[in-house]
Amino acid sequence: MGATIIDAEDRPGAAWGAVLSMALCVAMLIASEFMPVSLLTPMAEGLGATEGQTGQAISISGLFAVAASLAVTTVAGRLDRKWVLVAMSAFMLLSLVLVATAPNFAVLMVGRAFLGVCIGGFWALATAVIMRLVPAQDVPRALALMYGGQAIAAAFAAPVGAYLGGMFGWRDVFWALTPIVAINLVWHVVALPSLPVRQRQDVRAMMELVRRPYFLRGLVAVMLSWGSAFTMFTYLRPFLEQVTGVDVTVLSLLLLLLGCAGFIGTWAAGRYVKGDVAPLLKLPALVMGGATAGLLLFGFSVIAAGFFMVVWGAMNTMFSVIWMSWMAQNAGDAPEAGGSLMVAAIQASILLGAVVGGLLLDGVSIGATFIGSVALAAIAVALIGDGQRMLKPEGV
């Protein structure tokens, strides 16, 4: 079954230009999805909402991303995957325009819903497409390159967004992303080869994967790990403002530090994520949960906050490469179905993290939000253990 999807060997060379176009799309997706993190306070003021409510701009995109990730392989049917990815970029462009012009909270949510469709559809297909663009031995390297877009967005989107939002207003920040997304859409059309579906993988393929105990355990671990990360990350700005006591300039510098640390993670992922990934599976929850605990204990210091944000940011960019490499190795016979389930699990955990974190922030305190994040990380580490129970048995 896997040979019908992994067809890079049918071409004379790996399509690295297409991989780069996907890396730029990742950068724009990450920037668009999490820009409200760096603009949470001014967006709340501008729309007449609380910070906890505005944080749901992330949860609503997560909700639609879950639905899109589960539906895309069925709804898209036998459409060429190249044109499905082009359509996802068009949804992202529409979302940015709606958010930038939103006169009220309801229109903002509609714009974020369109972004959720793009997020779910793109990520559900991304790993399967990478597996078709490059030979099998190059898949981890290509994934690291694609997720390099995440490092770029993490390095520059949040700090630049916070800084420009302070100078010109949060709407102009979203407007500034639109021409880049338009260029990326054209690049997709030019660089991506035709990717016709050779074997449709629908709901039955997803259900078959879920019935595999090792894959189901992996999905639960993914949800706990990502839920922990984004319970904290969604509300990082209120923490830095309320606990660390930073102004917009220092906030921007700290977010830049966190983002630049992502380049370390990208380099490490390309170098060390290969072969057996089992020993690496618990690292994201362990390291990022530990960094969140460090912020809780020492976040009153700007220097300490900067240190723990660097640690968190470096592991954040390794996070996706580690787990998507696990998916490629343990669901290689059904990569689109595996990708759909992975994205649904990740986006559901981001959604729940934003919702629960917002409720804790509004109802208790920012400290309670971060304690919830640490608790989820601890459960994830305990479940994963040495990672062996997450691997496909030999001979299967």
From TrEMBL:
InterPro entries: MFS, MFS_dom, MFS_Efflux_Transporters, MFS_trans_sf. It is a multi-pass membrane protein. Residues 1-390 form the Major facilitator superfamily (MFS) profile domain. The chain crosses the membrane at residues 12-35, 55-76, 83-107, 113-134, 146-168, 174-193, 214-236, 248-268, 280-300, 306-326, 338-360, 366-385. It is found in: Cell membrane. Keywords: Cell membrane, Membrane, Transmembrane, Transmembrane helix. Pfam families: MFS_1. This is MFS family arabinose efflux permease. The lineage of its organism: Bacteria, Pseudomonadati, Pseudomonadota, Alphaproteobacteria, Hyphomicrobiales.
